[in-house]
User: What shape does this take?
Amino acid sequence: MDIQLKRGLLDVCVLAAISEEDSYGYKIIKDMKPYLVLSESTLYTILKRLEAAHMLTVRSAEHDGRLRKYYHITPEGSKRIAEFKEDWKEIMAIYRFVTKEEQPHA
Amino acid sequence: MDIQLKRGLLDVCVLAAISEEDSYGYKIIKDMKPYLVLSESTLYTILKRLEAAHMLTVRSAEHDGRLRKYYHITPEGSKRIAEFKEDWKEIMAIYRFVTKEEQPHA
DNA sequence: GTGGAATACATCGTATCGCGAAGTATTCGA
DNA sequence: TCGAATACTTCGCGATACGATGTATTCCAC
Assistant: This one.
């Protein structure tokens, strides 16, 4: 799939992956894989960006002697998803413009 | 609207704007405005990129003593739009993942 | 008849971003 | 024992959107 098309979905998709229960890097990648493949470097960049934007919080926990960082969505993160849903209306309008479906003959 | 979300739409949207009849820079921006606002610098970058990718051809013509560059979509450009439609199925799957609509309980 | 908006195209520099590459460290199964 | 899987991190590159800026012409209001 076109990389550019993914861009707007990535952030919100990661937020969606942790929205139902806290998750960690490796699991997020696995959960997203059926929908959207992303590399580790990409994910950790996104996670840091979302943390800086206060859309999620991080908590370290040990699991089988290995460190795991659990990510938890904040209200601001949920708000981001809600905004995405709003934006989607505009996206669909653009989609119809591109595919020439039910155009009002401008 | 989120800039990132626009990214995947921009190229294909410009192609759509010239798909029914040849058009030129200023008109493309005007035609797209109801759906997607983009600056001139962005558009000319995109037009050059699409030309380099052989998705459109350019032809200069004089209009009222002023130069105009008319852009014409190629079969490859049309193919790009068709591919976009295909990609859209995946995009919708991601949308459902994000909005948790009819998830098959993974 | 003059000035400013609109038309029309072009270039440069910057910030953002996805991702490949490479690295560290542990656990688990063949 | 050795490689795959798990788990996180950093660096650097290339692509890209866009603001700023510049050039040049036409058209309309005053």
Observations:
- Strands of chain A lie at 23-24, 56-63, 66-73.
- Residues 3-4, 24-26, 40-41, 44, 63-64, 66-69 of chain A lie near DNA strand D (CB under 10 Å from a C1').
- The two ends of chain A are 31 Å apart (CA to CA).
- Chain A has a mean pLDDT of 92.
